[in-house]
Every structure is written in structure tokens, then in C-alpha cells.
Write a sequence for this structure.
């Protein structure tokens, strides 16, 4: 059975790219202690990892879907910080204006 992402489980997660710990949590939608939608952010390598339907998607860059990541950023652009929406790796939204 897949373990859903709970705030207390963040204590064991590190960036799969550079092994940095701890990761920053940015919650977009929560249900009690469960993070339903959000993002984990590594301040060292500036990568974000989406949390979708309570599951963190922590894949290396070459296995990530640009379309899925950009759809995620578009969906949550107003709830996520600019460093994730416009400045993160491996994908980010273009700045308007």
C-alpha cells in the first residue's frame, strides 16, 4: 500500500539529486495532516517536486514530464511562491509582461 504524504513524513525526505535535507514544503491543498496537493522544494539545487493526490513525485529530471510539470505549475501558480513557479528546475513558467 502506498503511504500518503503526511507532514511528519517530511522528516525522512531528501532531494534525490543532491541529497539535501530538509526540503521546503509548500502546501496548496490539505486534508488534516495529509498534503493533498503542493510542492517540495530543494533550496540547494532549486528543484521542485510536485505533490499530486497525496503522493510526492520525486523523479530525476530525465524521467519527468515537462507537460505534467507545467500543467501542475499553471494549476497552482497563485498558491506557490515565485521561486517555484518562475525560477525552479527543471521546468518553470514564463513570466508574463
Amino acid at each position: 500500500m502506498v503511504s500518503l504524504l503526511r507532514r511528519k513524513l517530511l522528516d525522512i525526505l531528501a532531494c534525490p539529486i543532491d541529497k539535501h535535507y530538509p526540503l521546503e514544503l509548500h502546501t496548496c491543498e490539505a486534508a488534516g495532516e495529509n498534503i493533498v496537493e503542493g510542492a517540495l522544494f530543494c533550496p540547494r539545487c532549486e528543484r521542485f517536486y510536485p505533490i499530486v493526490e497525496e503522493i510526492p513525485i520525486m523523479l530525476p529530471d530525465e524521467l519527468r514530464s515537462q507537460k505534467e510539470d507545467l500543467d501542475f505549475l499553471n494549476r497552482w501558480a497563485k498558491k506557490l511562491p515565485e521561486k517555484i513557479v518562475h525560477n525552479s528546475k527543471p521546468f518553470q513558467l514564463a513570466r508574463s509582461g
Residues 66-76 form the longest helix (11 residues). The mean pLDDT is 90.
